[in-house]
Design a protein that fits this description.
Helices cover 83% and strands 0% of the residues. It is mainly α.
């Protein structure tokens, strides 16, 4: 088969996935005007989530293969489909949403093509996700934050009613409902970080598939570090210090923004903390079975003993943070070597 035919076979799955994503994204924007579609939107949300993972991989691969024309044409055509499906509802959400996928994946593919280190590529892509994700969701976030007390009170009242239906007296129901208030407050307060992290998960899965594809099907040297050498850049420490200062000294909106920034970074420090643990588990020659048991213990601990689970998670994040400047695994020497 000639190269032109192979190119179209490669593009067809991408076009099909982009069409599915465009239709679902467009339908999602009509939810406010069509409440009857709410159930369909909720049911199709996992499909859109997984489709986005594939698109991040496929678009990154197209950009790496010097097919940027395909990336921009696909993004423009898909955006047009979404706008038609949504009947023009929320155009800003559609433009920034498609830009987040197309620009981030194209950036990752081109930086990889130009020979940049995988960590540099990933950091640049995450910054792109944060910029476009913030632009996309900021209007909704502001509405959520403004109505935070009312939303929390609505959920607290709902818990109280449900507990009373279960047979508890009014005083006991009130106490149990009030105990849930901090959880609901944190849920609404940290909604921006959760939404951005969801986009990061989508890109990360797509990028890891791309990394596997690079290692298996191209002649490009494998420069991807194994998980037990993952490490947060030292340059993030001043950023954390500035965010912490804003958290301590700023007004309430600034504190909310700082809380979300810290929560966002804490997840990455948690992952690199797990990588540090994996390094030492390998060093003391834990078997695969023993490591599976260890990670299951960490995963199930918060369900059995929430406080202990919270403390263990905090310790792992602090380990990842400390290792970013202590460099116990000598990752910087390894990179230079």
């Amino acid at each position: 088969m000639n190269s032109e035919g192979s190119r179209w076979i490669t593009l067809l799955p991408v076009v099909f996935a982009a069409l599915i994503y465009a239709v679902l994204f467009g339908v999602e924007q009509t939810g406010d005007a069509n409440p009857e579609l709410t159930v369909l939107i909720v049911l199709m949300a996992p499909v859109r989530f997984v489709t986005a993972m594939y698109l991040y991989f496929a678009v990154t691969r197209l950009a790496f293969a010097r097919q940027l024309w395909g990336v921009w044409f696909l993004a423009a055509a898909s955006l047009a489909v979404s706008i038609v499906i949504s009947e023009g509802s929320h155009p800003w959400m559609l433009v920034t949403g498609w830009s987040m996928v197309a620009v981030t994946a194209a950036l990752a593919g081109r930086l990889t093509l130009f020979g940049h280190r995988p960590r540099t590529v990933y950091i640049a892509a995450v910054i792109s996700l944060v910029v476009f994700g913030t632009a996309q969701y900021l209007p909704d976030w502001l509405n959520v934050i403004r109505s935070l007390p009312e939303n929390v009170q609505t959920l607290v009242d709902w818990v109280k009613q449900e507990v009373m239906k279960a047979g508890q007296n009014e005083e006991r129901s009130r106490q149990m409902a009030e105990a849930s208030r901090p959880l609901f407050t944190a849920m609404f307060r940290l909604a921006p970080a959760v939404m951005l992290l969801a986009a990061v998960v989508q890109f990360t899965v797509g990028y890891l598939i791309f990394a596997w594809w690079i290692a298996r099907f191209t002649v490009t040297p494998n420069r991807y570090d194994p998980f037990h050498y993952w490490k947060m850049p030292y340059g993030c420490i001043p950023l954390v210090a500035v965010i912490a200062a804003v958290r301590l000294l700023g007004n309430e909106p600034m504190r909310i923004g700082a809380d979300n920034a810290l929560a966002f970074l804490a997840v990455f420090y948690g992952v690199t903390g797990l990588a540090l643990l994996e390094f030492y588990l390998r060093k003391i020659q834990f078997t695969t079975f023993m490591k599976v048991l260890f990670y299951l213990f960490l995963a199930l601990l918060p369900l059995v003993y929430p406080l202990a689970g919270l403390l263990s998670g905090g310790v792992i994040m602090l380990l990842g943070f400390a290792d970013s400047f202590a460099d116990w695994r000598r990752v910087r020497l390894r990179e230079l070597g």
